[in-house]
Amino acid sequence: MPNPAEPTDFDPDAFLVVPARTFEDLRIGEVFRAPSRTLTDAHAAAFQTVSADNHPVHYDAEWARKHGHSAPVVHGLQVLAFTAPGATLFPHFIGEVFISFLELSCTFLAEVHSGDTLYPALTITGLEPKGSTGIVVTAATIHNQRGELVLSGQHKYLLRCQ
């Protein structure tokens, strides 16, 4: 029986969630999903505290109804945050070749309310080699529990090539 106090062949640097890949290993059409999440009033309140966004559309049910909303609306930036690449397995797949998050854009297509469940995904739509680096372009999407697309956007990441 091995002595737990003795060194082993274990290498923490080789302890990966998934085998790391390179820019050249990525393929257009690959999808990286994030776990679904149901938003609660507590999530909205926490984001309101962090963002300092105190517009009543986000917390006053009567104000929201009076202005044509069925309920307070979750902050758009909070919804956008669900597309963070780190919420998916994408950073694990690209391992040490990640250099930077270059840009993002999005369109908010439908309101999100407390109680909605969100299903975020990143789909590779472009791979642009640039010498010793490459740009990965992804479509960022979020659907709700009714299958409605509530956010559509794009991310770009800079990776090292091998």
Automatic annotation (TrEMBL):
Transmembrane segments: none annotated. InterPro entries: HotDog_dom_sf, MaoC-like_dom, MCH/BMMD. Residues 28-143 form the MaoC-like domain. Signal peptide: none annotated. CDD domains: R_hydratase_like (cd03441). Pfam families: MaoC_dehydratas (PF01575). PANTHER family: BETA-METHYLMALYL-COA DEHYDRATASE (PTHR43664:SF1), MONOAMINE OXIDASE-RELATED (PTHR43664). Belongs to the enoyl-CoA hydratase/isomerase family. This is MaoC family dehydratase. It comes from Streptomyces milbemycinicus.
